[in-house]
Amino acid sequence: MRDGTPLTGDFGQRLRRLRARAGLSQESLAHTAGVSVRALADMERGRTRGPQRRTVQVLAEALGLDDDEAAALEKSAALGRPRPRAATGPIAPGTLALPRDIQDFTARGPALARLLELARDTGPDRPAVAVVAGQPGLGKTAFAVHAAHRLAPHFPDGQFALDLHGMDPEPTAPRDALARLLGAMGIADAAIPAGTEDRAGLWRSLVGDRRVLLLLDNAVDESQVGPLLPGTGGSLTVVTSRHSLAGLESVHRSDLTLLRREEAVELLTRIIGPDRVRAEAQAARDLADLCGHLPLAVRIAGQRLLSRPHERLSKLVARLAAEGRRLDGLQAGSLRVRAAFALSYRQLPPDSRTFLRRASLAAGADFSPETGALLAGLSYGEAVACAEELTDAGLLQSDATAERYRFHDLLKLYAAEQVAAEDGPEISDEALDRTARWMLRRATAAALHFDVEHDGSTLGERDGDPDPDGAPTGREGARAWLEAERAQWLAALRRAHGTGRHRQVVDTAQAMHWFSDLNQHWEEWVEVFQRSADSARLLGSSRDEAVHLNYLAWAYNMCLYDPHTALSTADAALVAARDCGDGLQEGWALGYGAGALHRQGRMEEAHARLREAAGCLASQDSPQARLGELTILNSLGTLLRQAGRAAEALEAHRRSERICRAGIPGRTDELIALYHAVARQQIGNDLAALERWSEAEPPLRQALAAFESAHMPAWAGPARLDLGHVLSALAHPEARATLRTARDDLTELRNPRQAEATAALTALDEAGAAM
Q1: Beta strands at 397-398 and 405-406: parallel, antiparallel or unpaired
Q2: I need a surface site. Which of 185, 252, 395, 755 has the fewest CB within 10 A?
Q3: Cβ distance 368 to 266 under 8 Å?
Q4: In 3D, which of 227, 111, 103 has the Cα closest to residue 164?
Q5: Averaged pLDDT, 167-189
Q6: Cα dihedral 626→628→631→636 (10° resolution)
Q7: CA atoms of 425 and 419, how far apart (whole Å)
């Protein structure tokens, strides 16, 4: 003893006497030793009778004990420490045994292989943690359980599975989870420490020298999981969660994805048997697609069919094909896709719930935070925070490169149900109108970057960007936004047209005119200009109607390759132009009609209209008329060449080139360079028709380079094909590669000339084989 302090008594009494002798309060001793006041109080009251060795050491240091006193304090603590029923060797099976494995488990081979490799790499100082995360319905638990059974031989000291109830209103507290783990290790209830920290310490000491497999299913967050993770030893912990648990450090991640179509069909086959799937192979594939390749949905569909052995797969396919009934059809007993989504949805904060359900109103396959903010009535920053939270919760998927998000198809249906249930039509319509107005203002401002007649610096308040600070910068930024948000601004245009905002429809389509020329392969231009022409008519403006009918005739000619409808549309534009006395639109209408006639093979009629169009435009002095004249001359030359009059065609295209070289007042060098490139392309084709192959190559290369530099794939593809023909005639070594690229580009663009490219490649191969 020292200073009369007895060395007998249990640990709590001894600790309290030593603290009193040192003249320290519980708070001061706890602070000096680095333990919590609650933990210290539990020790002194006997609730924690056997703290861990490290805890005793820091208390002894804080109390200033000598070696003998420290040893005595440690001895009294050791006497109170519980012993597991099996101190060595494998742990006897307890109440936390692994759940039954699923016999029809399908796919996930690579993810399983990575876990097996991880199990082999664990060592005494390398306890491993694997997090299995992803959206609801991906089969995280099924995968983890299947993996645990496969991994079990690597962990002879025991396997434990614990459901943390992360989706319940009150998830399992770490303290309670540790009590269950300690009980499974053989610790009597009375011997389990009271505090979470001490329970975690005891748990770690018990598994520190063992190879144990721990499955923590359905975790809610990092704070729930952290105290349960072993600190040393060769253990492996597999954690499943709908959340990413990004705060857990030094962990292996298995982010499960959707099944591939063939994997989904395989799962269905394992559930209902191969005979039924073989009998309706296409229906099985369709069913997998309608389930969105989501494992839970496929399993539910399979279980439903299994319980109805005489029901055809095609019957269920027909029911699920109706979106409004799809979630109703995806339930079998207690298994329900809707219920799986609802668990996550109910846990979200109000703003995130609003963001998720309103985002289902967005058009297209994905959406930006801007769209989500507008629909939800949130600020941009709030929307980004919600989107990130929903991504972390597995309810949205984020794009790998852009700040855009997407739903799983079934989850989008669920979110749409919540819009109907919680918002109703009035609030939904208000959100859609707000979004449409904003989108069309942004789309108009972005498209005007490409309008040769518009100075971007003079945008007025009416047609300016709704958020100048966040507006896309320059042409490239504007192009990127217009391409990424194509589905959104097109949906906004539809809504504006449907709700009678016709002036906004006309203004937006007018702004899109020059931008559309850069993207001729977009079939949507027919819808854009059909709606703007209708709106112009409803506004009672003959001139606007003539303008937009001309745009529509162009779209039918160049985007849908429908010359018959193009001709009737151009004729309607011609009537409207003559009614209002607009010579410029009259010239364009004649030119578009000629193009349609040309495509129908009505060459003489086309030639006559082109001559009339050229004369109409040549008589006008405006810069717009000069640009129109350039287009007409190029078309006229093309027609002459195809009629076997290549020399006359060359002269028409040389005339077009001379206009380009002279310049057009008020038009940028960049724009004139594109017109010049078109002329050079046609000059190259004229020279090729005259079999002046060597002379044809340079202008075609120049044209192709110009179109590629301007990012105009719809123009570059045909120019590359024209160059490929010339290189083939010259037996140039680049011919085959040029034609192959042209074929691929034209196929992607859905351009009818893809067949011409394929034929040219075949002819080149045949010529090579004959040599």
Answers
A1: antiparallel
A2: 755
A3: no
A4: 227
A5: 93
A6: -100
A7: 9
pTM, two decimal places? 0.77
Give the model confidence (pLDDT) of 752-766 as tens digits.
999 999 999 999 888
Would strands 213-217 and 236-241 be described as parallel, antiparallel, or unpaired? parallel
Instruction: Tell me which of 49-53, 258-262, 714-718 is least confident.
Output: 49-53
pLDDT computed for residue 769 by the predictor: 61
Q: Which of 561, 575, 569 is nearest to 532 (CA)?
A: 569
Question: Would you state the pLDDT for residue 9?
Answer: 52
What is the reported pLDDT for 82?
A: 59
DSSP string computed for 51-70: --HHHHHHHHHHHT--HHHH
Share of the chain above pLDDT 70, in %: 94
Instruction: Place 2 in a pLDDT band, splitting at 50, 70 and 90.
Output: very low
- Residue 78 pLDDT exceeds 70: yes
Phi and psi of 195, rounded to 5°? -90, 150
Phi-psi map region of 98: left, alpha, beta (phi>0 left; psi -120 to 50 alpha): beta
3-state secondary structure of 667: coil
pLDDT at residue 58, as a whole number: 80
Is the separation of the CB atoms in 47 and 194 below 8 Å? yes
User: One-letter amino acid identity for 606?
Assistant: A
Structure tokens given for 238: 């597999």
CB 186 within 8 A of CB 210: no
Name the amino acid, one letter, at 206.
L
CA-nearest of 98, 94, 90 to 187 is: 94
Q: Is the dihedral of CA 222, 223, 227, 228 positive or negative?
A: negative
Hey, what are 480's tokens? 């990127």
Secondary structure (3-state) at 240: strand
Compute the distance between CA of residue 528 and CA of residue 129 in angstroms, rounded to an integer. Answer: 54
Q: What is each CA distance from 528 to 78, 366, 375, 548, 591, in whole angstroms?
A: 81, 21, 23, 10, 21
Q: Residue-wise over 727-737: b if at least 16 C-beta within 10 A, else e?
A: bbeeebeebbe
pLDDT (average), residues 467-490: 94
Mean pLDDT of 138-146: 96
The Cα–Cα gap between 304 and 134 comes to 25
pLDDT at 83: 56
d(Cα 318, Cα 290) in Å, to the nearest integer?
10
Question: DSSP for 651-674?
Answer: HHHHHHHHHHHH--TT--HHHHHH
What residues have CB less than 8 Å from 543, skipping those under 6 apart? 576, 577, 580, 582, 585
Nearest Cα neighbor of 503 from 458, 548, 564, 562 is 548
Tokens 């939270």 identify what position? 389
What CA–CA distances, in Å, run from 5 to 9, 15, 17, 42, 52? 11, 11, 7, 21, 23
Give the whole-angstrom CA distance, residue 435 versus residue 430.
9
pLDDT band at 94 (very low <50, low <70, confident <90, very high): low
Identity at 88, one-letter amino acid code = T
Sole residue written with tokens 């309670």:
176
Q: Distance (Å, rounded) from C-alpha 589 to C-alpha 593?
A: 6
pLDDT score of 356: 98
What radius of gyration, in Å, describes the C-alpha atoms of the chain? Answer: 37
CA-based max dimension of the chain:
124
- How far is 369 from 708, CA to CA, in rounded Å? 31
Q: Are strands 236-241 and 128-133 parallel, antiparallel or unpaired?
A: parallel
First CA to last CA across the chain, in angstroms?
110
